[in-house]
Here is the input.
Amino acid sequence: AALTSALADSSLEVVVNVSLDGTGKCSNSTTLPFLDHMLDQLGTHGLLDVSVEVRGRTQDVTDEQVNGAVGTAVGQAFADLGLCEHHVSSTFSAPLDESLVGATLSLDGPSQLTYDVGFPTKLVGTYETRLPELFFQNFIQACGMSLSLIRQTPKNRGNSHHIIEATFKAVARALRAAIDEVDQRPVEGTLVKREASIHRKTGETDVDVDIKLDGKGTSDCDTMIPHLDLMLKDLAETSGISFKVECEGDIHIDDHHTNEDIAIVIGKALQEALGNRSGINRMGFASATVGEAQVEVTLDLSGRPHLEYELEIPDERVGTYDTQLVEHFYQSIVNNSGTTLHVRGISGTNSPDLIAAGIHAFGAALKMAVRFDDRRLGKIASSKGVL
Here is the structure.
């Protein structure tokens, strides 16, 4: 879609070109540098070719007017593409380090915005943090979609730049998921061999890990910790990644070193198997239910290790397994694979079910993130071009 939108009682014009069959190419010049950066996120993470140019801005035109006019023009472009004729909904939560924002949209509306995204500061550079709400309000009014944006981390924490960027990334990923459902686009595979074998020996443990990212979801694990063997079996089945793990550890002391070192080596193996991460989705989001327990996981294979762990496991032990080690398991994978990971307990009080739901959601999110998409043409899913 291509259109030119004019701001009433002004010389301002907004020229927009959007292609749904894009590869994430962006060229934006709105006179608001931070908004340009956010439109880059919309294109890069939504696999949309996006070009927005603001022309004829005079000194009497405010940033608020430009921001709103761009939101309207981009929304009109999406309306012209006919997306709102389809009864399709999608949800995606996008992280950026400590920040996490969830987006839920319905292509056929009704045109309504739910916006619960708070900011610790009023400005990011010279861009006002109140302006993203106006952008999305004008966007959905013009295109007819309904959109809910909810910040999923505590309002008294976070970096304003990260929060806004996570918001645009969440919208972009939710949009792409909805568009692909409309198109009934098949999942693409890869001929690249993505495997790794890592051996690590310390004075406490001796660990061997073999993984195949494009495996059959099989596991052959002898960790000396029965519940960890079960967790890895569940992780393999839900992620489609094949694992082989062998370990000899000092479990006569406790399970801590063995649990940690196995997760360290799994993280290192993921890092090696992913290579430079070009061509992959990069982000994954999943919710899993086991019994009465529900856990949501969002991850970003960003090269930036960060864990937000909000999973309360009421029992100290599940069998002989120390439940404190669950968080440590995730932390060690995150640190050694360069992953941003958010684990959120939604409901449930049964400890085994909570652990299992977390692993199932982690596996499903990882499966989404490592998947190749031929539209990325070997490119890295980042507006920077590198991770």
